[in-house]
Amino acid sequence: MTTSLSFTQTSLAASPAAGTNTQQTVQSLNHPVPGGIAVITLGAAADAPQVRFQTKPVLVLPGKQGEWLAIVGIALNVAPGTHSIQVRRDVNDNASVRNIDFTVQEKKIQRTAPDNKKYTASQSRT
Q: Domain segments of the chain: what residues?
């Protein structure tokens, strides 16, 4: 018995009319903390650039007005602070790589104490 699977590729920027809503949806993903996602604007270009973060490939999506967006998954073990993605506009030109810095923020967890008072991980219980 042979099983066949098929996959359909969908685009978040399906039409120019949907572009604004898509841009807002993608930007709402921007939570640059360990375990989160950073959405970084790469600027306008005719073709999608290649992007890497810590030697791993990064998802690149079309944004509004010809801009490209990098959707960077941030591992839980990434320390807060300044990090860089490597952007290559021309696949055949190794000299065309540029770094774009972004900041990974400290993750703040809100918990509810047994007495129903909220506190963050950096605060002590009273």
A: 16-106
